[in-house]
Design brief:
This protein is α/β, with parallel strands linked by helices. The protein is 42% helix and 17% strand. It binds nicotinamide-adenine-dinucleotide and 2'deoxy-thymidine-5'-diphospho-alpha-D-glucose.
């Protein structure tokens, strides 16, 4: 099976590539990634010598490069490439509109032109908006995104659906909840709190810290994507979730305590504008129709993740320089 992965140098894409190459000897992967601030070739060191893996630096909004790779006739395109951080979409939505919407159009057009048999769009629970204290999102919930990031992802989902209906393209959409695990960029809650705590820096918690997220280990997400890629029904959406709700302050306290640091590092700061209160995924369709369930419990997964950041200090120290510090100052400086 020849897979064209986009955005494979980011957090989830790199975990997916490593998982697929290690698990299946008949899988070949081409990875196109623009290497934005979030893309990191170091994530793929363990597979870069493999004869079944090839990296191409390129932009999914660039029709020429996408057409060139599509002309090699992969069996499937799995689209992880995106601007992925909500806070950055509040600072400037432009790149989110370009990559997350126009980039998807370019990929879909290439699928049509070259007859690619399958397109997998990696979407997010954030397209559904925010939940109250009860209930969960199912695939039939309306799309009610609240941030420029989630609006761009919802737009892409609609476009993917339109190409299924209008052009009969073989597409599937996955919508997953919050991932955590190795190689996550330290702008997101869990790696930010682990690395700041290790540096004895403030731990900025938005608002009252009671916003709830549904956490899933990245490996469970990768396995779900593989399942949907192979067995999902064309035109369908599949929710993916960890069945694991935590409010932010509890996650931050857990990390602080596991690292043996003081809770006095925790600072409540000005809330994120438009901050969704709660996410919770109902992934019953994926479980009952395709047989997937999450396997990694949060206590095991968070322990493994904290250890990974302890053992890979050089990886995140190299990231927390230059552009990262400028972003950090812009976003947190005033909070
Ligand atoms: P990430 O920010 O870590 O990685 C994104 C990757 O895409 C980077 O390697 C970056 O260089 C690349 N990229 C960005 N713009 C590009 C472009 N124009 N052309 C080619 N490559 C480009 O993101 P992530 O957390 O790994 O998320 C991957 C996907 O999963 C995204 O589509 C995101 O919306 C979705 N998702 C993420 C989560 C989560 O919790 N992180 C949950 C659900 C869904
Ligand atoms: O739900 C899936 C989504 O999860 C993905 O689609 C996104 O790509 C991914 O970034 C993530 O979005 P969130 O906004 O939920 O994740 P983030 O790690 O940015 O924040 C998680 C929660 O923690 C959220 O309620 C905001 C809060 N938070 C975050 C940061 C960075 C803080 O309180 N302080 C912080 O400094």
């Amino acid at each position: 099976m020849k897979i064209l992965v986009t955005g494979g140098c980011g957090f989830i894409g790199s975990n997916f590539i490593i998982y697929m190459l290690e698990t299946y000897t008949d899988v070949e992967i081409v990875n196109i990634d623009l290497l934005t601030y979030a893309g990191n070739l170091e994530n793929l060191k363990s597979v870069e010598q493999s004869t079944r893996y090839r990296f191409v630096k390129g932009d999914i909004t660039d029709r020429d490069i996408v057409r060139l790779l599509a002309s090699e006739k992969p069996d499937v395109i799995v689209n992880f490439a995106a601007e992925s951080h909500v806070d950055r979409s509040i600072i400037d939505p432009s790149a989110f509109i370009k990559t997350n919407i126009l980039g998807v159009q370019v990929l879909l057009d290439a699928c049509r032109e070259f007859g690619i048999p399958r397109f997998v769009q990696i979407s997010t629970d954030e397209v559904y908006g925010s939940l109250g204290p009860e209930g969960s999102f199912s695939e039939t919930n309306p799309l009610e995104p609240n941030s420029p990031y989630s609006a761009s992802k919802a737009s892409a989902d609609l476009l993917v659906h339109a190409y299924f209906k209008t052009f009969n393209l073989n597409v599937v959409i996955t919508r997953c909840s919050n991932n955590y695990g190795p190689y996550q960029f330290p702008e997101k809650l869990i790696p930010l709190m682990i690395t700041n705590a290790l540096e004895d820096k403030d731990l900025p918690v938005y608002g009252d810290g009671l916003n709830v997220r549904d956490w899933i280990h990245v490996l469970d997400h990768c396995k779900a994507v593989n399942t949907v890629m192979r067995h999902g029904v064309a035109g369908q959406v599949y929710n993916i979730g960890g069945r694991c709700e935590y409010c932010n302050i509890d996650i931050v306290k857990l990390i602080v305590n596991k690292l043996g640091k003081s809770e006095s590092l925790i600072k409540f700061v000005k809330d994120r504008p438009g901050h969704d209160r709660r996410y919770c995924m109902n992934a019953d369709k994926l479980t009952s129709e395709l047989g997937w369930s999450p396997e990694i419990s949060f206590p095991d997964g968070i322990e493994q993740t904290i250890n990974w950041y302890l053992e890979n200090q050089a990886w995140w120290e190299r990231i927390k320089t230059g552009e990262y510090l400028k972003y950090y100052d812009t976003w947190y400086g005033e909070r």
